[in-house]
């Protein structure tokens, strides 16, 4: 079975179970998952540049005459046929409607099965997991290479420029880029870059995308003396992360790692309410986060599910992309040239001191 058919077979099984004749995929992350490719043109809108009609024996993309040549040449699997419209026309008239049609969003009197689609794509097939591992390593290395070029006199936007250049050189698109220097790192959890000079500390976070799959990574560099207090605080946030990783077990609820973090913050020198000041991460893969997990998240962690936890506190942040498997958690975004230290038996990214 081809990778495309392997990916959508659970969707076809769902159609059969619900007696549906067709399924319409319309959302960017779901389309990127289905074709293992780029479904967007502008990155700022949810609407994709095509819709995908899946039946038991085929798949058809509906797109316009502008996008069709590129999609056929560079993005769509050979199993997908293409129907085109003029650029001035809408795609809706070509999409099946009614109670015998499922979709990943409401509309057209179709059956909204968006949650079911999200749960299906939560488990990567082996070929997607293999390329995801490469993406995560490439993202970590690209970020690391850029951070090694940063000087304390740079502005945050200069750092962002270095990172952007490094990511694109590695064939990685930017889904999110945050940069904070010494003044903003304590103030904001999602620091979009400004013209502020970075000073003695730079924290940079990325969500980097290739063919739909997204890797999340944070790395921190310091200038000057690294004090014992800095190392202690940095280690402490990684101990919170370690508690989350220990609780990330296939078949258990996403609430378990969150509850572990809530307990780990005060146990490692943070305020008891530290966890309320920033989301702690959640399932990822084809979005920076499908949703931020919380204490009420009853959805079960799936086998081969990408996850990115991101505990923060005292100006420090721990963030890498992992995959939950039946044999345990595996950290994917490793940079072999970045300094490391050991936390609870795992090799983790340390501070780069310049």
Topology:
Elements: H1 3-17, E1 22-27, H2 28-35, E2 47-55, E3 58-64, H3 68-75, E4 80-85, E5 101-103, E6 111-112, H4 114-120, H5 126-147, H6 156-169, E7 173-180, E8 201-210, E9 213-222, H7 228-246, H8 255-267, E10 281-283, E11 305-309, E12 312-313, E13 316-317, E14 320-325, E15 328-331, E16 340-343, E17 346-349, E18 352-353
Quickly list its features:
8 helices, globular, 4-stranded mixed sheet, Creatine Amidinohydrolase, Chain A, domain 1, 30% helix, Creatine Amidinohydrolase, 354 residues, 2 domains, 18 strands, alpha+beta
Your description of this structure?
With 354 residues, the protein is an alpha+beta fold. The chain has two domains: 3-120, Creatine Amidinohydrolase, Chain A, domain 1, CATH 3.40.350.10; 126-353, Creatinase/methionine aminopeptidase superfamily (Creatine Amidinohydrolase, Alpha-Beta Complex). Helix content is 30%, strand content 26%. It contains eight helices and 18 strands. It has helices at 3-17, 28-35, 68-75, 114-120, 126-147, 156-169, 228-246, 255-267; strands at 22-27, 47-55, 58-64, 80-85, 101-103, 111-112, 173-180, 201-210, 213-222, 281-283, 305-309, 312-313, 316-317, 320-325, 328-331, 340-343, 346-349, 352-353. The chain has a six-stranded mixed β-sheet. The chain has a four-stranded mixed β-sheet with strand order 7-8-9-18, with helices on one face. A four-stranded antiparallel β-sheet has the order 10-11-14-15, covered by helices on one side. A hairpin with a 2-residue loop joins β2 and β3 (58-64). The model has no long low-confidence stretch (mean pLDDT 96).
């Amino acid at each position: 079975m081809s990778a495309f058919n392997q990916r959508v077979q659970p969707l076809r099984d769902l159609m059969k179970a619900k007696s549906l004749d067709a399924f319409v995929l319309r959302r960017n992350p779901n389309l990127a998952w289905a074709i293992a490719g780029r479904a967007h043109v502008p990155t700022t809108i949810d609407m994709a540049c095509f819709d995908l009609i899946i039946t038991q024996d085929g798949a058809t993309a509906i797109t316009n005459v502008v996008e069709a040549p590129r999609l056929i040449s560079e993005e769509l699997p050979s199993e997908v046929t293409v129907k085109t419209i003029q650029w001035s026309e809408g795609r809706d008239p070509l999409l099946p409607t009614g109670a015998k049609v499922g979709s990943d969003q409401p509309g057209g009197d179709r059956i909204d099965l968006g949650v079911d689609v999200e749960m299906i794509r939560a488990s990567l097939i082996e070929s997607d997991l293999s390329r995801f591992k490469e993406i995560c390593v490439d993202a970590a290395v690209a970020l690391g290479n850029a951070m090694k070029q940063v000087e304390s006199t740079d502005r945050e936007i200069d750092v962002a420029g270095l990172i952007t250049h490094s990511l694109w050189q590695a064939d990685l698109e930017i889904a999110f880029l945050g940069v904070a220097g010494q003044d903003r790192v304590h103030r904001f959890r999602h620091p979009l870059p400004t013209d502020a000079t970075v000073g003695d500390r730079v924290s940079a976070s990325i969500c980097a995308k290739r063919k739909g799959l997204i890797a999340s990574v944070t790395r921190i560099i310091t200038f000057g003396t690294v004090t014992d207090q800095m190392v202690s605080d940095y280690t402490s946030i990684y101990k919170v992360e370690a508690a989350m990783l220990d609780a990330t077990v296939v078949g258990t609820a996403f609430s378990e790692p969150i509850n572990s973090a809530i307990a780990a913050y005060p146990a490692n020198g943070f305020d008891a309410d530290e966890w309320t000041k920033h989301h702690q991460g959640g399932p990822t893969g084809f979005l920076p986060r499908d949703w931020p997990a919380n204490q009420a998240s009853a959805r079960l962690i799936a086998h081969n599910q990408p996850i990115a936890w991101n505990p923060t506190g005292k100006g420090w942040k721990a963030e890498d992309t992992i995959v939950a498997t039946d044999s345990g958690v595996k950290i994917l975004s490793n940079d072999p040239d970045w300094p490391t230290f050991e936390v609870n038996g795992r090799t983790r990214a340390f501070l780069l001191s310049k």
